[in-house]
Amino acid sequence: MRKIQFVDLNNQYLKIKNEIDTALSEVIQSCAFIKGPQVNSFEEELAKYLHVKHVIACANGTDALQIAMMATGLQPGDEVITSNFTFIATVEVMALLKLKIVLVDVVPDTFNLSIEAIEKAITPKTKAIVPVHVFGQCADMEKILAIAHKHNLLVIEDTAQSNGSDYSFTNGKTFKAGTMGHIGCTSFFPSKNLGCFGDGGALFTNDDTIENKIRIVANHGMTKRYYHDEIGVNSRLDTIQAAVLRVKLKYLDQYNAARQKAAEYYDKELADISQIRIPLRSTNSTHIFHQYTIVVKDENRDRLKAHLEKNNIPVMIYYPVPIHMQKAFKNEINKENKFPVTEYLGQHVLSLPMHTELDPEQIHFICDNIKSFFR
Tens digit of pLDDT for each residue in 20-64? Predict the structure, then answer.
């Protein structure tokens, strides 16, 4: 059996080595390392894949979120609702822009935003909702968009973990994650379902005005060279990363299908273990398993983690400390809010190895070790 990796980027690369090496060589020979033609081509190809009008590439997923909030005109003191069960980048940019962070709890099955909690959090100062499509499936966007429409709120999707996931509305229409709100933001960090060989990110929108503003903000606030109409940032996807992503985009559906197949193996092997809960699927979103995350009942999570690591099985905890308990945000969050589900998940979730190269033998070994722990 091959050594089990939490993410196996090397073997993924080897399968497309010739295509990647050729793409990289072309960039190196051209020396067009910044804003080379591959960047524009990648934006066009990703827009076609997503069925969205505009894709604007940037330096990373965190920048994408910041640019989105700057481009939509959010001002200091504006309230923005988002999930407490997410990576810190989602709220980090809000603090930097001096927005008021309004965290809400998540639902215990999909780990995505609680609709009830969103509705309770809205005030006259609320300006935006940032749903995070965590672990690979979409939040309940039909209800979120209805709330946003009712209260005239912006919707900025954080789709860093769900590139390629589909969401189906009750009218039968289906949209890709990140294409339903005013703006979608994503990351191409190497371990993502669509990952580059460094940092990278992008924003998606169907709004021409927002697209123009995003491009200005991402390019030092310039409308034309050396003419700066507003404060912006410097955030661009370099050409080498665009070249890598152009190759890997062709395989994204295949990669997601491989993750789904691995998840099915896990489900079958782990279904009868009463002490854990396997990932639950939303009824209106496909799950493309950026992570395969189980809930370990009682007080067994940390002991199970140690047991698996002792047997050379890498695992991870996303996320052990909720945002409202982080030292950096002790003065940013309303302490009166309660987050029972988020706090429970922080103590009970465990993510198992999940990537495109997992095979049945490896999954069987992982699951056998989980079963042996509970015997």
Answer: 999 999 999 999 999 999 999 999 999 999 999 999 999 999 999
DSSP-assigned letters across all residues of 217-262: HHBTTEEETTEE-S---B----HHHHHHHHHHHTTHHHHHHHHHHH
The two structure tokens encoding residue 281: 């699927």
Q: Please state, in angstroms and rounded to a whole number, the distance separating the CA atoms of residues 79 and 28.
A: 45
Alpha-carbon distance values, 360 to 35, 254, 258, 280 (Å):
42, 17, 11, 21
Spatial distance between the Cα atoms of 139 and 162, rounded to a whole number of angstroms: 10
**Domain 9-249 falls under CATH 3.50.50.60:** no
pLDDT digits 0-9 by tens, 189-232: 999 999 999 999 999 999 999 999 999 999 999 988 999 999 99
Please state, in angstroms and rounded to a whole number, the distance separating the CA atoms of residues 141 and 112.
10
Q: Is 48 exposed, middle or buried (0-12, 13-18, 19+ CB in 10 A)?
A: exposed
Class of domain 252-374: alpha beta
Tell me the domain boundaries of the chain. 9-249, 252-374
